[in-house]
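Our consortium's second objective concerns turning raw sequence data into structural hypotheses that experimental partners can test. To show how far this objective has progressed, the report includes one record in full. It was chosen at random from the queue rather than selected for favorable results. The single chain below, 484 residues long, was entered without modification.
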Amino acid sequence: MSRSCFQIRISLTVLFLILVLSGVKNTFAKERTCSPDQPDTSGYVIIRNIIIEGNKQTKPSIITRELKFKINDTIPLMRLPDLLTTARENVFNTNLFNVVTVDTNFIAGSTVDVTISVIERWYIWPIPYFEISDRNFNVWWATKDFSRLTYGVDLTFSNVRGRNETLKILTHFGFNQKYGFTYTIPYLNRKQTIGIGFGADVDLNHEVGVETVGNEVVYYKDASNFPKQLIFGFTEMIYRPSIYTYHTFRLAYNQYYFRDTVLRIPGFSLTNSNSQIFGSIYYQYKNDHRDIQYYPLTGFYFDLEFMHCFPYSYTHNTYLKVNARKYWQIYNRWYFASGITMKISLEQEQPYYLARGLGYGREFVRGYEYYVIDGQHFLLWKNNFKFAIISQRLIKLGFLKSSKFNTVPLALYVNVFSDLGYVYHYSTEPPYQTNPMNSLQNNLMLGYGTGLDFTTYYDIVIRCEFSLNLFGKPGIYLHFVAPI
């Protein structure tokens, strides 16, 4: 089993949902459809007015920014249903609302009013944070050493000033400590195309991953000192010329401090300097046509990332990453999705603390969750075939007065999947291109299995999967984001 930190994030929304669903009386309310009432036979309609309802905090301009039509537009009648469906999806993907409905009302002849009704979310969330500094819960339970717990609160303020601005404050105490904030302003100009973001944090770690042996991360621990310390700050500009395209330009400052014991481990760093200060530039292009971003069923997604760190003497970290995903509705409640992620590093030699192959974040082959595969380049291909046991629907909870909580969307899917992955590792030491201590490098990985996915409001996804890998080792895993 991997020596990766076992994390438990308890969301107040999940706890609330469990309590609420225990008292549900199976009262289902389907969403209104986006079809015109008595359409005019002329073949065109004119948008007379756009009416927005339910936005107690959100500025109307934040909603109209997501529409592909405006007042006085003349639209072919055949396109109207698709435009209304797209409008509902785009407004929902702002992550500001639990429910979005779009209706039309024909006034006279070819004139139509469009009504967009929203139920706003709760915008302030204190989310408890817990981390166990052991391979997993079972290892920690053997000692029950509470001094090795990291705990705190991630406080998020969404939709600040009603302009979809976001403030996040991180406060982690205990074994590993972190203090920081980020603030994002999506729109600065009148055309709503330019935004900015900025943030900073301080990380203090009693343990740090120093090398990979046997496809597992080996950690160095020091209970009395912080062998790794980081001061990080960034500022970024976001350019959104259309509804679906984004350009992000980021400039960051990184100041690491490592103790001598860590620096003496071969490959961990490219220099023996305790203090390593460098900058980084980052660019991302994103084209996002997914119907529901947090759990898509149709559409496609593409992004391109470029990262470069400087000065060269410290980092040797420049890479290009491409991510492409496609989602299909095959028939009725049957769906298929496929996604490819590829990373190419422009440096053969990288410091261990900056290098990333497969096994980090969302980039892993299912069935290999406990492994880390280091290398300069990787390719990851994921495939998912699913059936909606319970299609997306709404539950109305009459005993709750707040509209932020009494309308609960939910869905349940069963799926089968298969993933392929390959990590290319070039070693600067003989034998080149191979490392017998990490057998997954330069070898094909295959994982496959089946699982259940549950989705509900506030972007909650709970996945339980049974997987097999080429080692023949089965496993049951929990995840909290969409598979692809």
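The partners drew two points from this record. The radius of gyration is 25 Å. The domain at 31-120 is CATH 3.10.20.310 (Ubiquitin-like (UB roll)). Both points have been shared with the crystallography group to help prioritize constructs.
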